[in-house]
Amino acid sequence: MAVRATVSRFPIDSDALEASGLPWGLTLTPFAAKDENGIAPAYGSNGHLLPRCENCYAYFNTYCELDQWAWNCSLCGTLNGLPSDAIARYSNPHSIPEMSSSFIDLELPLDGSEEEMTQARPVYVAAIDLSSSEEFLELTKSALLAALEALSPGSLFGLATFSHKIGLYDVQGPVPVVKNVFIPPDAESKLPLELEDAMPLLQFLAPVETCKDRIAAALETLRPITSWERSSGAAQGMDGVLMGGRGFGTAMEALFNYLGSEFGNTFALARVFAFLSGPPDYGRGQLDTTRYGEQYASKRVDADRALLPEQTPFYKDLATIAVQSGVCVDVFAVTNEYTDLASLKFLSIESGGSLFLYSSTDDSTLPQDMFRMLNRPYAFNCVLRMRTSTEFKPLHSFGHFFPDPQYENLQHIICCDSYATYAYDFDFTDNTGFSRHSGYPPVVQIAFQYTVVVPPEGLSNSELPSSSRGKHTLQRRIRIRTMQFSAAQNINEIYDSVDHEVVLSLLVHKVILVSLEDGVREGRALLHDWLVILTAQYNDAFNLVQYKNGNKSMSSQIDITFSQCPQLEPLPRLVFALLRNPLLRFHEEGVHPDYRIYLQCLFSVLEPSSLHCGIYPSLMSYSTPDKLAYPRHSLSRAALMTSGSPIFFLDAYTTLIVFYSSTADSSLPFPPPQDCLLRKTINEVKQGRSITPKLMFIRGGQDDATAFENYLIEEQDVDGAGFASARGFVSFLDDISQSVAEYMK
Fold this sequence. Notes:
745 residues, alpha+beta, 8-stranded mixed beta sheet, 7-stranded mixed beta sheet, transport, protein transport
């Protein structure tokens, strides 16, 4: 559980918070195996015996004052009595996790019988779009063959297809058999036949260890639906015009109901991989993609605002059905046509899954992403609760979860991997703030309750009854992190404790929210205004602007680079980069709305360092493939030219580029050899990613260097089409300086 705060020393009251101009909050990666300093939790059992405060329900922790019979809550100060079993347990504190560490992970007893506990076979279903191309199906087959290698023994796998009909594959016999159910073409009708009646679910779900070859054989039989098949099965519109044939919505709804019958019996969580090659245009949940081609300018409509909201609540409602059926959906869209991910995204993010977008089949990393996703541990049926000491409270929460309808600051997460990150911002409960001389510093406690499937090798045989050996087992656990912060006595202490990457994370969450509600222009305006106010507050705090005859002598004196505070120095560059990012660039600059939605979903779950890389890529240089020259350059042509280095490595999170300058010595090996330092760095970067970055090698003067040069943003105009100019970042700082001068008048 990694936790990082925007400031490690909290503002002492609401006046200090406002004067700082900074967001106050934190980011949280609950299922990370270690904390932000690389320290693992103290593990134990009997989590249900952990004492809780009678007033605020916080858990007992190392910051609580403990005497023989009672303990004081470190969050609210309440005196609580200790039950007799806790008194006996705490008489030997060295063996008790909550007495030795403020970061603990304890096992909880499971509800239900021991037999139910062992019925935990992981279930995976692939749903493949046949209204597609041969290239799409070849890529999908490669991805699923990679997935089969990553699945643990004991898993069940189902293969389904969709077009104008749903195909269910039985691979448990000697020859794969497919049963088809035709989809009604209109948007209201449901299937004429339940999938269970077409093929019993346990006939559809095949054990991976015994059927892997037959699953692979079934994949080889997949072919795209021909135009003849589609015209005979799909709806004919006026004058015989074909009305589509991708019945994605109906297929997903039917699959969830199909799987839901065995939820809690055969499986505790089913994962559906939906492979999509274009927009749903048939049956329930069909989408109107003509809105992308509309001329918004002539209607005086903001295209960015018009294309970001969903056009139907169908997929949001469908996500609710998925959750009730115990299903988590990962959507893999392989398409360069408008697919309206603004509507489809809810199916994945609200069911605990991921959304992937690949613009073509040629260089897609889909197989690697599938293998990577299934190879990392995940928790499910998670509940996340943040508590704070009484002086302050969580104000907003950000991330792919859904809030509890009854309890405040309680979030449910259907499926959570070790990368998934969430964010919170804080506010004071009243005007008092933290006491300057109090013995009770600010405290944050995060409780994360979750379930994991433990494979048979994860438990010793003595832990299981003989009838259960060889089966997967469910384990319910609670992970608790209690953190004590200090309150800053002045604004210098706040500024000196800033973590600029966490500040960026909260800004990204807020501008995404504003963009979705009010459009991209409003998101850009919010970001610009925030930097102006921060710069003004900083200049005021350090008395950098002098008064002459009662008036402030302005812009020539304004420090727009935060030269007095190294922790704030990166922020103008990060804001400029965020304004140049496709997340906030205008529709008329050629930013595809589906790509913007994909970035919103990706950036909403990245931990701060990864997000920093996605917004402002890191650029390092090498004098040879085995020798690092400079670890960090600014993203400008000038930096490249003045460095004199022949080799550059750019990491933009989703893309990695090795660039050899046109002046590089011809004796330098290209591409870099596999055993060199540069390759080792690339491999380490790739291993630490939640997705597989695309790797490119470019030789300056010989290859097209556009892909690399597009990342050199500092000479690009912040509001223009990104063409190199003498303006760029310098001009942006001038604009901020003038705006600060206006603000401070």
